[in-house]
Amino acid sequence: MTQYTKQVSNPLHIENSVGALQRDALKLPKAFKTYSEMLSDEMIGGGMSLIKSLINKRKFFITTPKNASPSEVKLIAALNKSLGNLDGMTKPQLLNYILSELDYGHSMLEQVMVREDGKQVFKTFSPIHPINVQKYVFDRNTLVKLELNTAENDGLLIQKVDNMKEIEGAKVLMFKLNADLDNPLGQSMLNRCYKPWKAKEIVQEYELIGVAKNLSGVLKIKAPAEYINAYYAEPSSDNAKYMEEMFEQAENLHAGTTPFCVVASDTTDNGVSLFDITTVGNADGNNMDANTIIKRYENNILTTLYTDIMSLGQAGGGSFALSDSKTNLLALVIESICESISATFKQAIKVAYTLNDVKLTLED
Questions:
Q1: Contact between 128 and 174 (Cβ < 8 Å)
Q2: pLDDT per residue over 25-63, tens digit each?
Q3: Which residues have C-beta within 8 Å of that of residue 85, sequence separation ≥ 6?
Q4: In terms of CB atoms within 10 Å, which end of the chain has fewer, N or C?
Q5: 208: helix, coil or strand?
Q6: Cβ atoms < 10 Å from Cβ of 222
Q7: Which helix (H) or strand (E) holds 282?
Q8: What is the DSSP letter of 157?
Q9: Using CA atoms, how far apart are residues 85 and 122, in angstroms rounded to an integer?
């Protein structure tokens, strides 16, 4: 007997409103997977790529202080050289790993040093995905260690190293975005995008459902009550087999699974149907423009990411003054991110200074 999957709609009510979905989806560590899913959205992915590309265009190197000693000048030159020759990654790739803090609120790299020409320099920076971290152990504001989960992998990538259970905090560079009392691990730029993204996703799904029903319609099948009862109570009976054949023909008529309803065809002595199904309310369609709703949510997303400059001119509006204002605002955001990255990366430089027994005289 053919098995039919029962599908139940999940309309938005108080218990599963977008706000309720947000509270569940943005709980750590579940939030990391939510952010990863959000990045596949064309507006969010495009906006984040714009910010990262603008930052990646900047030159990334260690500057030499004005009053640097000869040993310090040589060390900084060696460190800059090692940044351009990291094992397994280029300097832009390193910056991309660091910029994942924009996606997840923080990014983590294990600092690996190597001795070359008598100096301890950077060998590589091994990225650590937040999804793979089970616990962050702090002593006040200092990271003591990371306790790790087994990395999720479909078998395509194989690391020829033993699975580490924990990493010492002293070896980890932790870049945080907008860390505060409520978000000590930092806050993703996608955090405030969740509501418009989720609402947009729901509207798009409803729109596709509406298009499918508009193209194929919804079948209404009438059959005697005894046939319907037999289909559920006596699946081996001739009446049940007849109903099964009718359902299969209904699906073939619509080239695949599609909504249909089954009602008994029994009538009263006066010919009035005992059972019936009909729509209540707006039977002629809807008066809501899904495109306008989706566009509004997309604009909200771009505004939240400070990348609404991408939408200028799409609707025939905009001006040079407005473009300059939005460009300057985006530039301020990028400058703030770069300064935060620079402040954190100085920790790696301090480690190099200590290992090379060079006095630290770096300037801000």
A1: no
A2: 999 999 999 999 999 999 999 999 999 999 999 888 999
A3: none
A4: C
A5: helix
A6: 15
A7: none
A8: S
A9: 9
Query: Of 341, 321, 344, which Cα lies nearest the Cα of 333?
Result: 341
DSSP annotation of 18 reads H
How far is Cα 353 from Cα 21, in angstroms, rounded to an integer?
A: 48
Residues 162 and 134: their CA atoms lie apart, in Å, by 17
**Planar angle of CA 101, 106, 109, nearest 5 degrees:** 90
Given a contact cutoff of 8 angstroms between Cβ atoms, the answer to whether 256 and 246 are in contact is: no
Q: Decide the pairing of beta strands 260-264 and 219-223.
A: parallel
Cα gap 2→241, rounded to integer Å? 10
Largest CA distance in the chain: 108
Exposed e or buried b per residue across 170-182, where buried means at least 16 C-beta atoms within 10 angstroms of its C-beta:
ebbbbbbbbbeee
d(CA 310, CA 196): 17
Q: Is 43 exposed, middle or buried (0-12, 13-18, 19+ CB in 10 A)?
A: buried
Question: What is the tens place of the pLDDT at every residue in 184-211?
Answer: 999 999 999 999 999 999 899 888 877 7
Structure token pair of residue 140: 């006040």
